[in-house]
């Protein structure tokens, strides 16, 4: 037809599919200028090309089809400026969020890249100075089985995503020291996610900088008792006093491998060294 474009021609000009144009017609966003009553073929006028350009540009900018449809019913320079500035604000939020996600992914990648080093340290207990960090907690319900731990971890992730909290993509658990001494190694009372310092939630625990003793356990979680025994023996041999519950950080877990034999868990306790204990005793005497 003169001065009209078929749906195939228009789709080719705009480098989109005919199905996209059919969908836009069905939702009332972009309807053809003419539909042949005999065969149902859609045809578009040259004037509509600019209108379609506007739709595609707005979609590229990030507007939803619903927002585009509402905007284009009656739009002018004022309403367009308002819409564009609103979208700039939304894009700025996305950039900030992506920056946070990127930083957390880099943190996770660094841990995974060091996995071979961790494996070499499986039998080594080390004393190290830990920097302060923050943990988002979720209580594990009794009887503290693997089922309850898994549920608590999932709820911790779900809550953090719902509130858009700055968590790292890592999880862990806190096992009371008394459970360790009773050989109840897998009975954690809290699941946690490492998190950036934030005032957005009440259930955040601050771990101060301090002297810690740690070991890397390689293998499935149920075999973690052997690593606890190594760390307890080490503390006894070196007169290190454990002054905290156990913090277990999942380095390589179900998020990054399907094979439980590749799981890597960092076990960490805060400790007092012999020198610190002596200095404290002197302070009490004076």
Descriptive account of the structure:
- There is one protein chain.
- The protein is an alpha+beta fold.
- 45% of the residues lie in helices and 22% in strands.
- The protein has ten helices and twelve strands.
- The chain has helices at 7-14, 18-26, 47-61, 65-71, 77-113, 115-120, 146-162, 177-181, 225-237, 274-285, and strands at 4-6, 34-35, 42-45, 126-130, 133-139, 172-175, 190-195, 204-207, 210-218, 241-242, 246-252, 264-272.
- Strands 4, 5, 6, 7, 8, 9, 10, 11 and 12 form a nine-stranded antiparallel β-sheet that branches.
- It is elongated, with a radius of gyration of 30 Å.
How are the SSEs ordered, and which strands pair?
Layout: E1 4-6, H1 7-14, H2 18-26, E2 34-35, E3 42-45, H3 47-61, H4 65-71, H5 77-113, H6 115-120, E4 126-130, E5 133-139, H7 146-162, E6 172-175, H8 177-181, E7 190-195, E8 204-207, E9 210-218, H9 225-237, E10 241-242, E11 246-252, E12 264-272, H10 274-285
Antiparallel strand pairs: 1-3, 2-3, 4-9, 5-7, 5-8, 6-7, 6-11, 9-12, 10-12, 11-12
């Amino acid at each position: 037809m003169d001065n009209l474009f078929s749906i195939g021609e228009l789709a080719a000009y705009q480098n989109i599919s005919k199905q996209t144009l059919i969908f836009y017609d069905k939702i009332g966003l972009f309807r053809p200028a003419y539909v042949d009553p005999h065969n149902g073929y859609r045809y578009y006028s040259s004037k509509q090309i600019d209108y379609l350009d506007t739709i595609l540009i707005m979609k590229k900018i990030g507007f939803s089809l619903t927002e585009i449809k509402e905007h284009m019913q009656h739009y002018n320079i004022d309403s367009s400026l308002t819409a564009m500035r609103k979208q700039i604000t939304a894009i700025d939020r996305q950039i900030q969020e992506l920056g946070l996600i990127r930083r957390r992914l880099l943190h996770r990648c660094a841990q995974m890249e060091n996995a071979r080093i961790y494996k070499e340290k499986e039998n080594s207990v080390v004393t190290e100075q830990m920097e302060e960090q923050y943990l988002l907690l979720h209580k594990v319900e009794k009887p503290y089985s693997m089922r309850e731990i898994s549920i608590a971890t999932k709820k911790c992730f779900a809550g953090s995503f719902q509130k858009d909290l700055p968590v790292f993509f890592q999880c862990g658990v806190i096992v009371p020291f008394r459970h360790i001494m009773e050989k109840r190694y897998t009975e954690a009372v809290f699941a946690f996610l490492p998190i950036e310092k934030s005032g957005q939630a009440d259930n955040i625990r601050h771990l101060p900088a301090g002297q810690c003793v740690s070991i890397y356990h390689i293998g499935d979680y149920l075999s973690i008792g052997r690593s606890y025994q190594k760390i307890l023996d080490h503390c006894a041999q070196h007169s290190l006093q454990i002054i905290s519950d156990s913090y277990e950080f999942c380095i390589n877990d179900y998020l990054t491998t399907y094979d439980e034999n590749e799981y890597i868990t960092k076990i960490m306790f805060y400790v007092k060294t012999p020198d610190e204990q002596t200095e404290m005793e002197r302070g009490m005497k004076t």
